[in-house]
Amino acid sequence: GDPQAAEAARARQNALTKPPGSLGRLEALATFMAAWHGTDRPVINKAQALVFAGNHGICAQGVNPYPQDVTAQMVANFEAGGAAINQLCRANGADLSVVALDLDRPTGDFTEGPAMSEAETLAAMNRGAAAVDPGADVLILGEMGIGNSTIAAALAAAIFGGDVARWVGPGTGADAEGLKRKVDVIERGLARHDGLKGNAPALLAALGGREQAAICGAVLAARAACIPVILDGFICTAAVAPLHGASPALLDHCLAGHVSAEPGHRLLLEAMGKEPVLSFDMRLGEGSGAALALGILRAALECHNGMATFGEAGVSEA
Amino acid sequence: GDPQAAEAARARQNALTKPPGSLGRLEALATFMAAWHGTDRPVINKAQALVFAGNHGICAQGVNPYPQDVTAQMVANFEAGGAAINQLCRANGADLSVVALDLDRPTGDFTEGPAMSEAETLAAMNRGAAAVDPGADVLILGEMGIGNSTIAAALAAAIFGGDVARWVGPGTGADAEGLKRKVDVIERGLARHDGLKGNAPALLAALGGREQAAICGAVLAARAACIPVILDGFICTAAVAPLHGASPALLDHCLAGHVSAEPGHRLLLEAMGKEPVLSFDMRLGEGSGAALALGILRAALECHNGMATFGEAGVSEA
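^ inputs. structure came back:
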């Protein structure tokens, strides 16, 4: 980000007709946008939302109660406009694109080998990068993939360590037995694929997920274009954990749109030093929490750009 | 509210293309709106925002660093479109009206006598009630009045008791000395006006605030018209504490839009059993937190009404 633009935005906030600091985090969001847009008056003309979808060999281990067909069915639902993310993008003015990544060719089961080859991993990262509109003023990221809360917990555990159980939650609806199965599957995966923490592409290849690799590619492409990113919930945040493992600063342009009800998400955000915009007990994915946070970001910029200063309004200061 | 409409809305939420409960509090907000609109498909066509402004004799005790003229200056700023509430109402589609209540005739200093006569109190309540548009689908309430964080703390302490210091915060910018002065002023006020807890109009008259009385009038008028209300921060919430003292159920149609940085607000919401929609460290008043929450409420209804069901979308259930 541009520290001079951020400083100028902060000075403007202190001149607006309100007690200094009284817009709370809305002020910090405006300053964040100023830094990444390189101007004291950042605006959102074009908000892009990208949802990446993938299928996962790990489903062979019985980690999810839904059949894998649901991934393609939900992609069709996104394309028909019937999902939550469609409504949230419309409500908050984001252009939604869905990128289905080889759904008929699930990744490998990471308990038996790497989820993806290096070539597959890089191809998915490139798909993610290529999907980013360089003219976007903000990028919302989301995902869909039956079984991918197991992928997320595996990535989080690989980067941040500790008991695997800390990172495992019910996802779309695992019961106590399902949770134990997820923990066991992840422990076996981590034992097989060890020592990859600093190597983001290798870690993505090992534990997988095409949508996770695509999210990393999109985050890096957005960074190169100075486009601020709003991350979604546990799975989206865990997808970029490998980038954090390589260098935490790679995520400085990323906001956490919300903290989800999936218990590992709060831990993950704390480990990554990200304060979520919203806390709403959501646990849907699809980018839904990030799209909801876009409305807050828009409101922050409306205040920042639209309010009068004390001088302009003729209001006395304290 | 209408329990049958709420039940039908809940059934619809469980049929939508998402794991049950995965939209978190958005689901509860949709059900809340269904109950008060008496339909399983509530919509917000018209959102009204009302900001009531008043001046306070208590300012003679030096409880606020800003001059009282700022109340009228900020009303002019609202009318010119330069304040935060203007931007937030535009961003979230609310029609804003500002009602200035006899600004050139501040209430009495409650340490020396009642703030208002009974007739003045009822007139202000009636002004509030008359300002409510009976065709509104949701009502956002806010206030402006130099010195009114002292009024708010006095009302909260009168209803919920405990150390006065628990209810006193910096408001627009009191320092440590200012806080002590506020506590002392309120203790003297409460000693003078005792035993009014169950009598809302008498309590409003004693401790005052025309804008507090107007907010109570508007809340009751909205209740009669089954219009859900979004309350703003500490001062707006404390304004309706006298109604809670009379009967907590009088506030069942009210959401807490946010929890403010003013320390008494969290205590007040806990005492009133209200979970805030947002927590954003805001402390501006004007209805700003309530108007921000309107965007979330709109998003909740967009999901509720716009999403496909599993059957409609042909998505397999678990």
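Chain B has 14 helices and seven strands. Residues 47-298 of chain B form a domain with the Rossmann fold fold (CATH 3.40.50.10210).
thumbs up if we can close this ticket
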